[in-house]
Amino acid sequence: MRHFLNINDFTAEEIAEVLKLAAHYKATRGTDQHPKPLEGQSWALIFSKSSTRTRVSFETGVYEMGGRPMFLSAREIQLGRGEPVKDTARVLGRMVHGIICRTYDQTDLVELAEYSKIPTINALTDEEHPCQILTDVFTYEERRGSIKGKKVAFVGDAACNVALSYVHAAKLLDFQLVCAAPEGYQTTVLNENVSVTSDPAEAAKDADLLYTDVWVSMGKEEEAEQRMQQFAGYQINHELKALAKPDALVLHCLPAYRGKEISEEMLEECADDIFGQAENRLHVQKAIMDFLTKSG
What we know:
By secondary structure, the protein is of the alpha/beta class. The protein has helices spanning 12-28, 53-64, 85-93, 106-116, 130-144, 161-173, 200-204, 224-230, 238-241, 264-269, 271-295; strands at 42-47, 68-73, 98-102, 120-122, 151-155, 176-180, 194-197, 209-212, 249-252. The strands form 2 sheets. The protein has a 5-stranded parallel beta sheet with strand order 7-6-5-8-9. Strand 3, helix 4 and strand 4 form a beta-alpha-beta unit.
């Protein structure tokens, strides 16, 4: 049984296959050629964290692939009242055909996959956000070509789940990742494709892709004031973009806090790319579900 719990669950060749499939889903949306591999299936969406893009893209995706999405807030099922994860998983595995889970602890997700014995997808945990990174790669490649050998500058909280997934993707897909973050917010997971700096200008120099995420992730709200002070100067703006390559792409996984991790002007200038990136979650996640159902 195949799952997508982290980037390394797929090989580089499988990722290429998924992205090719995503392009097909995007091109055929709304036509008779659009695949419906989930016909007659029900997929459970278990969300312990609030969501806009992830929930809407997955619910829409399951529906457009012929299936029935079933949204289950953790507060509304027995899991939220203390039922063990493995018991919830055993029940769902006998009733639905796949699980999409957005939660805090990665180990809960692993346990869901182990005991449900049905395809399980990581829709975000505190540790990783693999669907987002595959979407980002898809977005870059449809606009600029292969990401292999390119330089990606991640500016901001480089210890967050998105940054960690980028670290694994850099090695798997062979691009260079430079993370610019203040001390205490730098990734400690490194490989030969990843470097860390406290200087945003160093990261942005000759970059092919400038990327950022919110400074205050869900669950870190009590640290907001401290983080605002420490991340001052780690904003993607005109000055930083001027250091990158002339055709550098600017992406943000959203939601964006304008005037903080990205300037108002930069977000509006790059809005077509950034909101196209958000749309691409739908197409890429369809491809992931399709790939998992076919690979058993």
